[in-house]
Structures are given as structure tokens and as C-alpha cells.
Amino acid sequence: MAVLSAKHALDTAVEAARWAPSIHNTQPWAFSISREEISLRADTDRKLRVGDASGRELLIGCGAALFTMRTAMRCEGFEPEVRILPDPDRPSLLATLRPGVEVPPDESIKVLGRQIERRRTHRAGFADVQVPDALIERLARAAMEEGARLTPVRSPRAVKVIAALTQAAQGVQAQDQRFSLELIRWAQPPGSSRTDGVPAEGYPRQAMRTDPDFPQRDYSWQHDWGSQADQRAATSVGVVALLTTPGDGRQEWIDAGQALQHVLLYAAAYGVSAAFHTQALEMGLLREFLRCELCSGQYPQMIMRLGVTFDDKDSVRRPLSEVMA
User: Which parts of this chain are annotated as the region Disordered (predicted)?
Assistant: First the structure.
């Protein structure tokens, strides 16, 4: 029975990992199961060659998938044994995971597990509903447990600076045809049957401006795509937060992804969603300015806004047959 349970835990973990967040929903991961062990590999064919030349965002997405597998395995009653970057000669092998000792899941783990398929990325403003400070503090502790730091930006002036950096990066990228073509590669047209990328219903055709304005990715670039949902009642910025790490290597990028997913699942359990703004982090000079001026020397890995939305968008994920190597 224990062998059968371990096999079920492995299968459940991989099934759950498909629902992790990734830049433009590229889903840049591949899995294999051998000898009761899952191998997580980077699918470099799905890397953004222009916006993510270093692979930082790819590894953050894979780190989120790793935390999702850890959570799913714990929900199945096993403490996962994880090795990160186990083989320097195989750089695409990011982690291995196997069921360890049997441990009944506590309620906190079950809470996270129930959000794996429910969590959604938001791509517009938020409703004018305050996110409790106590929840933000708990999210910060969740990030810390994974080796990262989540810092809410409380100063209105600092929020304006981050919004301005996002606007600047968005403006520069919009003038670069390479960025635009790479972006629309992952933007689905209405009625698309694709199982990756961002569905047309998943972003607004024309997003309402927040104050200060945090521009969204222009997935409808030169197309009449996107949701026509009324966004007039959802223009709040929400809580702006920075996810940072003390270093900036492959290990830290994976740590950031695990921290990100821990934060997102916990927030989702309390009805809070996240909108991501990585434009400024894709431009070296702006990212370094942010690190020096607003991150106390820590490396910014994600800019996000946290808030409440009453939209319930669908998401798409590739079937297991496409992510199993």
C-alpha cells in the first residue's frame, strides 16, 4: 500500500505542477518520473529570448512549479525530499523530488493545496477593498520561509517611482518590435484551442488606468483582442509589493519562484489575487536602479500588486502528455 500511495503522490505532484504561474503562461517546464523520483527540467524552447535572455524568469516559473509539487506531495501525506540543482553537468535539471517520510497533512497545507487549481493571475485594476495588514505580514513570512523577502511598499512616493519605472520600461519595450513580436507569440486570439499562453478572456482589451498607473502588457497589440468586461469599478492599485533575494543566481531564482507560489496560494485562500509587472526587471539599468534605491541592495525578482477582484477568468494548461519527458 505504501508503494501505491507513493506512486499516487508522484503522479499528483506532477499533475498539480502544471498549474504553477509562469511569464506569459509559457509553462517552461518538463517532468519525468523514474525510481519514485520526479525530475524537474527547464524547457528552454519556451524561454523568452528577448525579454528573458538570462533565463531568470524561466527559473522563477520552474521554482513555482517545484513549490506546487512540494505542496501537493504534502497534501498526499509525504514530506518531500528535494535536491535543487543536483548535477552541475546537467544545467537543465533544476531539481529532483521524491516522497520522504509519511506525515499527515495539517490544515495549513490543505489550505494551500486547495488553491493550486483555483489561483489566477489578474491583469487589471483591483476593487476598492482593503487587503488586511495581518494578511500581508503572513505573506511576508511565507516568502521568508522559502529564502526570499516580500516587502509591501507603503510610501506613496515609492509606489509612484515603481509605477514610473514600469511605465518607462513598457514604453521602451513597445517601441522594440522584437519585444512586441515575442509578446504576441503568447497572446491567444479569441476562440483559440491552444493550451499555453494568455487567453483573450484573460486580459482586458483596454485596461482602465490605475492611479498611479501600472501599465499592463499589451497582449492585444495591433489586434482587437481581449476581454470587454467593465473595469470601471476595478481601478485600485492594491498593495504594491517587491519580492527580492539576497543573491541573484540560479539558486536564488528558483527560491524566488518557490516563495512566489507560496505567497500566491496563501493569498488566494483569502480571496486576494496578484497582478505582475516585470517590465522594469527585464531592463538591466532599471532593475539595478530599483535594487539600489528601493530594495536595500537586495535583488528584485518580482514586482506585484495584491488586491481583490471579482473576475473569475479561466486559465489553460498543457496536458500531461506534453510536459512529461
Answer: 190-214
The partner residues of 150 in beta bridges, in order of sequence, read 243
My answer on whether 285 and 160 are in the same domain is yes
- The full 3-state SS of 236-253, as one line of letters, equals ECCEEEEEEECCCCHHHH
Question: Which string of DSSP letters, residue by residue, matches 25-50?
Answer: G---EEEEEETTEEEEEE-GGGS-TT
Would you tell me how many other CB atoms lie within 10 Å of the CB of residue 253?
24
Q: Which residues contact 298 (CB under 8 A, 6 or more apart)?
A: 149, 244, 245, 246, 291
Instruction: Give me the residue label for grid cell 516563495.
Output: 259
Q: Would 127 be classed as within a structural domain?
A: no
Between 72 and 230, whose confidence is greater? 72
Q: Please give the grid coordinates belonging to residue 43.
A: 524547457
Q: Where residue 105 sits, what CATH number does that domain have?
A: 3.40.109.10
Task: Give the span between the Cα atoms of 76 and 83, in whole angstroms.
Answer: 20
Cβ atoms of 243 and 148 within 8 Å: the answer is: yes
Query: Which pLDDT does position 1 carry in this prediction?
Result: 47
Mean pLDDT over the full length of the chain: 93
Q: Is the peptide bond before 28 cis (omega within 30 degrees of 0)?
A: no
Phi, psi of 246 (to 5 degrees): -70, -30
pTM listed for this prediction:
0.95
Among candidates 193, 190, 181, which has minimal Cα distance to 218? Answer: 181
110-142: pLDDT as tens digits: 999 999 999 999 988 899 999 999 999 999 999
Domain that holds residue 70: 2-119
